[in-house]
């Protein structure tokens, strides 16, 4: 699969604490994040990715993340998740990331229209539990209608199975709140 580029909330923010708690309550241990893009070739130099992102943030507004609703689905990454608003700043960062690091996007407008920003709380690999019981464990008042601006970026090697994923780059976006 390659690298995935994730947007995380600011480290010591209330929303980061709430998201980490929700994910742990469901028996998972991944970082709370909105995936900006995936399938970045492992051959792409990490320093090039960092440099490109720093240039982007020097010229563009911080990404705004607005959590709208709790939802469930049948896709691996969307078993129980928080749907996020497609803010202009978030879509701009995702589109830049897709074009710059994955490339060969014949129809970037179609990709942008289909971009579905979300924060997974549990992946479909956990089969031994009922979704309703899991949802009942969550305090949605600490998750729904919450926002953050900026945060941090993680580049994660997602080429193996979930337990083998590893962060290869992490940096705080300047001026995050």
From TrEMBL:
Q: Which Gene3D superfamilies match?
A: Cyclic phosphodiesterase (3.90.1140.10)
Biological processes, Gene Ontology terms: cyclic nucleotide metabolic process
Q: Name one Pfam family in it.
A: CPDase
> A GO molecular function for this record?
2',3'-cyclic-nucleotide 3'-phosphodiesterase activity
Report what the protein is called: 2',3'-cyclic-nucleotide 3'-phosphodiesterase
Q: Say which species the protein is native to.
A: Rotaria sordida
